[in-house]
């Protein structure tokens, strides 16, 4: 198991980064929030988990061990795979997931794309006694303001949201909802975080 990676960031995408370790570029799938916090050329250390499938080896990376642990914990529930677990952590922080599970907060859990009422009930039933108390830490909020987005950025953000599990209409509506208040110079990752917050309301 690869528990962590330390190296220089070679590339940053919307939901992935390439970390150069010993001359090898390791593709690491991550949340848009985490991808937005790193820059090309920066030295980073990420907590990781390797998901092994018959036809693939996929590395997922997180800004903290608690985020990685929550990613692994939710996958112990039947029907929850890496993609849904990553979508969960794209919408909610580990503390918010933990709090929702312990409190049986189905409304919060069903904000996650791919989680309906029955899935949320199953998550609560199986995990509420397995997750720890929230620590009170939360991800940084980045809220660009003013003007409007270019079409290319709109399309990239909408495409990323669809990739995380929302419908095309939900993605388009969320992008439209944040476009009026968005800074034209804001990065696609920052705009994606805004859209995720819009969808999480």
List the helices and strands and how they pair.
Elements: E1 4-12, E2 16-21, E3 24-29, H1 32-36, E4 43-53, E5 56-62, H2 65-74, H3 82-91, H4 94-103, H5 106-109, H6 117-127, H7 151-163, H8 168-179, H9 188-199
Parallel strand pairs: 3-5
Antiparallel strand pairs: 1-2, 1-4, 2-3, 4-5
Give the radius of gyration: 17 Å
Number of helices, where a helix is a run of at least 4 consecutive DSSP H or I residues: 9
Mean pLDDT, to the nearest integer, reads 82
Distance between the termini: 36 Å
What would the CATH topology of the largest domain be? DNA polymerase, domain 1
Q: Describe the global form.
A: globular
Q: How would you describe what is shown here?
A:
This protein has 201 residues and is of the alpha+beta class. It folds into 3 domains: 4-62, Nucleic acid-binding proteins (OB fold (Dihydrolipoamide Acetyltransferase, E2P), Beta Barrel), CATH 2.40.50.140; 65-127, 5' to 3' exonuclease, C-terminal subdomain (DNA polymerase, domain 1, Orthogonal Bundle); 151-199, Ubiquitin-associated (UBA) domain (Helicase, Ruva Protein, domain 3). Helix content is 43%, strand content 19%. The chain contains 9 helices and 5 strands; from the N terminus they run E-E-E-H-E-E-H-H-H-H-H-H-H-H. It has helices at residues 32-36, 65-74, 82-91, 94-103, 106-109, 117-127, 151-163, 168-179, 188-199, and strands spanning 4-12, 16-21, 24-29, 43-53, 56-62. A 5-stranded mixed β-barrel has the order 1-2-3-5-4. Helix 2 packs across helix 3 and helix 8 packs across helix 9 (188-199). The protein is globular, with a radius of gyration of 17 Å.
């Amino acid at each position: 198991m690869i528990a962590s990676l330390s190296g220089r960031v070679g590339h940053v995408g919307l939901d992935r980064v390439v970390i150069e370790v010993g001359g090898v570029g390791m593709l690491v799938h991550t949340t848009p929030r985490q991808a937005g916090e790193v820059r090309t050329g920066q030295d980073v250390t990420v907590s990781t988990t390797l998901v092994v499938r018959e036809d693939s080896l996929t590395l997922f990376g997180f800004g903290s061990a608690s985020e990685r642990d929550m990613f692994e914990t939710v996958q112990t529930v039947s029907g929850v795979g890496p993609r849904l677990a990553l979508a969960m952590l794209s919408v909610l922080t580990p503390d918010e997931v933990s709090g929702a599970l312990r409190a049986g907060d189905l409304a919060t859990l069903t904000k996650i794309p791919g989680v309906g009422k029955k899935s949320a009930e199953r998550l609560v039933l199986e995990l509420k006694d397995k997750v720890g108390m929230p620590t009170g830490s939360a991800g940084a909020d980045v809220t660009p303001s003013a003007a409007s987005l270019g079409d290319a950025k709109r399309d990239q953000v909408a495409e990323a949201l669809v990739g995380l599990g929302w419908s095309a209409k939900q993605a388009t509506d969320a992008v439209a909802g944040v476009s009026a208040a968005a800074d034209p110079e804001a990065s696609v990752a920052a705009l994606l975080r805004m859209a995720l917050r819009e969808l999480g309301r």
